Amino acid sequence: MPRSVNSVAKRARRKKVLKQAKGFFGRRKNVWTVAKNAVEKAMLYSYRDRKTKKRNFRSLWIMRINAGARMHGMSYSKFMGGIKANNIELNRKVLADLAMNHPEAFEAIAKKVKK
């Protein structure tokens, strides 16, 4: 019996990977073995950095809240402690947005926390 190879599926697999490698530099975009490794590594980075992005944004929100709180004479920890004590249910993302884009609203919250 003759040897059977499934070239159609093989070509489809390779095309899929080469399509994912579109935009890569040099041989990483058009040589199968190099592209396969590059795409695999890129997938690992994208998975890892989806987690890292969440950390980075939380850090950014904390910096913005801290800057806003210090403009009203409080530290970040005192401000967040006051938020919890006064049962203000706003998360860091919203508080950071208020501190940046709506300073008068943030000031109202800061005054309530200070009391």
Write a structural description:
75% of the residues lie in helices and 0% in strands. It is an all-alpha fold and 115 residues long. The radius of gyration is 26 Å and the shape is rod-shaped. The chain has five helices and no strands. The chain has a single domain, classed as c-terminal domain of poly(a) binding protein (Orthogonal Bundle), CATH 1.10.1900. It has helices at residues 7-20, 32-71, 76-85, 92-101, 103-114.
The helix count comes to 5
Helix percent reads over 70%
How many strand elements? 0
Query: What is the element string, with H for helices and E for strands?
Result: HHHHH
In the residues, how many domains can be counted? Answer: 1
Outline the low-pLDDT stretches.
none
Assign the CATH superfamily. Answer: Ribosomal protein L20, C-terminal domain
Shape: rod-shaped
- Sheet of most strands: none
Q: What name is given to the CATH topology?
A: c-terminal domain of poly(a) binding protein
Query: What distance separates the N and C termini?
Result: 88 Å
Could you tell me the mean pLDDT? 95
Strand content: under 5%
